[in-house]
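Duplicate of earlier report; Glycosyltransferase family 2 protein input re-posted below.
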Amino acid sequence: MKLSVVIPCFNEVGTISQVIQAVKASPINDIEIIVVDDCSTDGTQMLLKTKLANEIDRIVYHSKNLGKGAALRSGFAIATGDIVIIQDADLEYDPQEYPAMIGPILANKADVVFGSRFQGDNPHRVVYYWHRVGNGFLTTLSNMLTNINLTDMECCYKAFRQEVIHKLTIEEKRFGVEPEITAKIAKMQCRIYEVGISYYGRTYQEGKKIGWQDGVNAIFCILKYNLFCR
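Output:
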């Protein structure tokens, strides 16, 4: 079993080296590391081209900043693993938990696995109250239209069978990719599982990028991909 780890990256010079090392130290032996740099301007590109060049299997450089969804689209297009997992470049999620994330797929019970920051007894950093409220609202709205009972639709950690990735066409460029993916795999009638994960959240001072505008756009994407798109 080969695992492709797709890492969308934008201005993560302070964490990208640690993330790559953490992925390489994960319990999975056969890993393909794919980094998509979304036109970083803080020195991340130089680090990828020099110190980290031999640590990464494939690197894609966007000539302009397009957003997380666009970065995932680029990464998914070149992934060759039997299973593909998304790993953010900011150390909020722990690669030591890959076995838990891909376990239901390996057991032939799932086609897609979502991580959940709100399940299980793993450590969860306490950060923003209103983010939690907003996440709950977006997850509930998404669940009402997909008729699946996720607890954390917006969680980055998602693992897919390669066959699902081949059928999935990502249209959103920014953070609207999360509700888009959820709506599309629900319509594909994929077998979806959810597992509790650790969460080492960042503050805005530490580099967190998602904002209230992304929450508003997520509502639009939930409605768009569930009600108006096939």
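The radius of gyration is 16 Å.

Merging into the original ticket.
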